[in-house]
Structures are given as structure tokens and as C-alpha cells.
Design a protein that fits this description.
The protein is an all-alpha fold. Among the domains are: about 80 residues; about 230 residues, no CATH class. Helices cover about 70% and strands about 0% of the residues. It contains 23 helices and no strands. The model has no long low-confidence stretch (mean pLDDT about 90). It comes from Gordonibacter urolithinfaciens. One of its GO terms (biological process) is carboxylic acid transmembrane transport.
Length: about 475
């Protein structure tokens, strides 16, 4: 398309552009209502209503993609000071819309994407897939469970999207070699759901598995003073991720009518995966680099001087030192989702507004009055269910966290739930939802076209429901054992 044609296309008001304009108008009306017309509850100020208006308007813009995600973040940083929620600058960094702490998580994310980009540029993911195939043999159940666990493990260290793309590609190549037909192959349906679910679930395992994890850890430390260490997060969430991935794989193996796999179909794919030979020098360098970085982050549990953030910053730099060169500049830039990084910055500002104006505490005290007398497990289950429902309605992780975590922090003030539980719930159920294939991780598998929307709705919800219930039962006990 020529430049003139592209410019003409952008200036033409087609149906898609009209929908975006309608979404912008609706978002503006919602904000204006809360800013000027919404009654202010007793004990709150108008700025509390402004914070709610900005939050809802931004959610509308994010979900509809009426504006680019980054532009919506810019809108947050314009509206928060203009409405008086936070000043542009203040001596107390937490009281300013532009504060130094808001940059820690995005910069940490650059390390996360360094790991992801470096791993994905090597044969390591395919070696993991080859191990899963060897484990499966000719068993369809073992194949689905093996792929679920392998996807989950890979997703603990690389981006969820990359893990799902790798394993759904390999899985569907087996289906095609087996003569599978779209819409009819039970194996394809089971792999589509199980790989998508496992990619999201695996991301909860380590702080580097999903940028939401470190965001939730930072929010809890900022507003509750509870430091969830790197080791504590891994110790709590890796077992949970693996168990739920196995359950998810077993469910998918039983929920769909799966055809037998021909030995020659597995042989074709196994032969392709066996071509990588011995480990290359770059793989050995990458593993050494990662083990040292991971080890130092774990050591920060006992030696606070070894700050895990500083370790991440240092090893991001080391990855590009001549002689190490774990990935090229082009590979690195390709793996950085700037929209997600900017959304995280905006979410931190929104969370500051929601907590600082008292609106989160007011909502909890009004809607969940009496929660202080509830049993601990019931309180945690309510937190899990609220976060899960929010993520179904808001299919983007950071905005979900911007609503859920402030509410949970306010609820914890009256119920005594420890901060580690809140951080974990935010990362787990703010990052995982299989109810609808509209989350980007689910979409990358669903859009391959091997399963209908009806079948997805009937069967794909189970992994998230299992994760929700197990989280409520498991997190209080496990975080308690870790000393929280």
C-alpha cells in the first residue's frame, strides 16, 4: 500500500473506526460522570470518584482498543494530576504521579524479555518438546499431559505467548501428520486447550514467568510493606503451576474424544526435533548466565544486599557484552512488548490513586461489610473469585491487577490476609483465564481453527476454575509455611 493510500485509509471512517469513536465517547462520558455528576459517598472526596472514572474509562479504551494502549497510558498520566488525585511532583515519591519506584518494574521487565528472547533464539524450546515426545511414546494421554507440563515449564522462563506458539505449532504438526481434520480431531482440540492453559499457568511459577508477577509483588511491598522474596514466590507457585498443568492436561485428555496417533506421525515430528544435535556454545553460555542470575536472585532472600532488581539490571547488561552476546539488538527489540511495559507503568499510577484516595477501602467496607468475621479460607476464596471474574470481564492482565490488587489490599486491612497471598492471587488469577479465548495467550491457540467457540466455552473453563479453588485452599497454608 502506498503512503497516500495508507493515509487515505486512516482518514476514512469505516465501521471499525466508528466503533472506536463510539468507545472513546463512552469512555469520556463515563469519566465525566464520575468527575462531575456522581454523588460522593460519605468519607470520600471528589478525587476518589475521579480515580474510579479514570479507571473505568481506561478499561473501556484498553478492552476496545479504541486508542493504542500506550496512548491510554499517556491519558492516565495527564488525567491523574489534572483531577488532583496526585500532583505532578512531590517530596514523597509515592505521592507523585511521576515517581522513581514506578520505573523499577518496567526496567525489571527488560530482564524478563532478555531471558525470553535469548531462549527463543536457541533450540532449547525444541529440546524440551523433544523430551515431552519421548515421555509420551504412543500414549495420547501422556502426549497431552507431557505437552502441558513442558509448555508450563518453558513458560516459567520465557513469555507465555512464545511458549504457547512453540508447543501449539509442534502439537498441531503431529495432528496434521496423523491426518486430523479441523473441527473433528479430538487430539487437536485437547492440545489447543491444554497448551493455551499451560502456557498461562506456567507463567505464574517464577517472578520472571510473567511481568504481572513482579508488578503484584511490587504493589504489595509498596502499600503493605510486605516483601515477597524471589525464592518465596518460586517455592509457593512452581508446585501449584505444575499440579494444575497436570490436572489441566488430564482433563483435556478425558474431555475430548481423542483419536489414536499413528506411529509414523510421531516419527515424522520426532525426526525434525532430533536434528539439533549436541548443545551449542550459545546454549551453554545462556544456561550458565541464567543459572548464575537465578541463583543470585534466590540468594537475595537471605542477603538483602543482593537486590534481585539490581541483579536483573546487571545481567541484562551482561547479556550484551561482546563475547557473550546472548542475542542481537534486533532480536532483543523484537521481544520487547512496549505496550505491556507502558501499561504496567500506568497501572501503578492507577493503583496509587485507588489506594491513596480511599475508594478501594470504601468499596470493601461497603460491599463486603462483615468480611472481618469470615473464616480465612472464605476471604481468600472471595479474593480469588473476584480476581477471576474481573479477568473474564477485562481480558488484559495489567488492568485486571489495577482493580483487583487495591481491593484485596483494602480487604486485607480488615481480615488479616497476608500480603504474600494477595501478591500471588494477583499474579495467578490476574494472569490466567481460560473461560474465553479472547486473552492473547488463548487466542494464539484458538485462532488456529481446530476447535469451535461452543466447545471452548463448554470445556476450557475447567483449568481456571481448578486453579481458583486450589489457590484459595493452598496459598494461605503455603505462604504461612514460608513465614508470611
Amino acid at each position: 500500500m502506498s503512503e497516500n493510500a495508507a493515509a487515505l485509509s486512516r482518514s476514512t471512517m469505516d465501521g471499525k473506526q466508528v466503533k472506536k469513536l463510539v468507545a472513546i465517547v463512552v469512555a469520556a462520558l463515563v469519566f465525566l460522570f464520575f468527575q462531575f455528576a456522581c454523588p460522593v459517598p460519605a468519607g470520600l472526596e471528589r478525587t476518589a470518584m475521579s480515580a474510579v472514572g479514570i479507571l473505568l474509562a481506561c478499561i473501556i479504551l484498553w478492552v476496545t482498543e479504541a486508542l493504542p494502549f500506550i496512548v491510554t497510558v499517556v491519558l492516565i498520566f495527564f488525567l491523574i494530576p489534572v483531577t488532583g488525585i496526585l500532583p505532578y511532583a512531590a517530596t514523597d515519591t509515592q505521592a507523585s504521579v511521576f515517581n522513581s519506584s514506578s520505573l523499577l518494574v518496567p526496567i525489571y521487565c527488560l530482564f524478563v524479555f532478555t531471558v525470553s528472547g535469548a531462549v527463543m533464539s536457541t533450540p532449547i524450546p525444541y529440546r524440551v518438546a523433544s523430551a515431552a515426545l519421548k515421555f509420551a511414546g504412543n500414549s495420547t494421554t501422556k502426549l497431552i499431559v507431557g505437552f502441558s507440563v513442558a509448555t508450563s515449564v518453558l513458560s516459567m522462563f520465557v513469555s507465555d505467548l512464545a511458549a504457547s506458539a512453540i508447543f501449539i505449532g509442534i502439537g498441531l504438526s503431529i495432528v496434521e501428520a496423523n491426518g486430523g481434520v479441523k473441527g473433528k480431531s479430538g487430539l487437536a482440540k485437547a492440545l489447543t486447550v491444554s497448551v493455551a492453559a499451560a502456557a498461562a499457568i506456567g507463567g505464574i511459577g517464577t517472578p520472571i514467568g510473567n511481568s504481572l508477577n513482579i508488578l503484584c509483588m511490587t504493589l504489595v511491598e509498596t502499600y503493605m510493606g510486605v516483601r515477597v522474596t524471589f525464592l518465596a514466590w518460586c517455592a509457593v507457585n512452581i508446585p501449584l503451576a505444575l499440579v494444575v498443568s497436570v490436572i489441566s492436561g488430564l482433563w483435556c485428555a478425558k474431555a475430548f474424544k481423542i483419536e489414536e496417533i499413528k506411529p509414523e506421525a510421531l516419527s515424522v515430528v520426532s525426526a525434525k526435533l532430533a536434528d539439533y544435535g549436541k548443545m551449542t556454545a550459545i546454549e551453554i553460555k545462556l544456561i550458565t548466565w541464567f543459572v548464575i542470575a537465578f541463583g543470585l536472585m534466590i540468594m537475595s532472600t537471605w542477603f538483602p544486599q543482593i537486590n534481585s532488581m539490581l541483579v536483573a539490571f546487571a545481567f541484562t547488561i551482561i547479556a550484551f557484552v561482546p563475547g557473550i552476546n546472548l542475542l542481537s539488538k534486533e532480536q532483543y527489540y523484537k521481544n520487547i512488548p512496549w505496550e505491556i511495559i507502558m501499561m504496567i507503568i500506568g497501572v501503578q499510577a492507577l493503583a496509587t490513586g485507588l489506594v491513596g484516595t480511599g475508594v478501594a477501602a470504601w468499596f470493601v467496607n461497603t460491599v463486603l461489610a462483615g468480611a472481618s468475621s469470615w473464616p480465612l479460607l472464605l476471604v481468600v476464596l472471595v479474593m480469588c473469585v473476584i480476581t477471576m471474574i474481573l479477568h473474564i470481564c477485562i481480558p488484559v492482565g495489567p488492568p485486571t491487577v489495577s482493580v483487583a490488587v487495591p481491593l484485596m489490599i483494602a480487604l486485607a486491612a480488615t481480615t488479616g490476609v497476608n500480603g504474600a497471598v494477595i501478591a500471588c492471587i494477583g499474579g495467578i488469577l490476574g494472569g490466567v483465564t481460560t473461560w474465553l479465548p479472547i486473552d492473547s495467550i488463548m487466542m494464539i491457540c484458538y485462532e488456529k481453527g481446530w476447535i469451535s467457540m461452543t466447545e471452548w466455552l463448554k470445556k476450557a473453563w475447567v483449568p481456571t476454575a481448578v486453579l481458583c479453588v486450589l489457590s484459595a485452599l493452598y496459598l494461605p497454608a503455603m505462604t504461612g509455611l514460608m513465614g508470611y
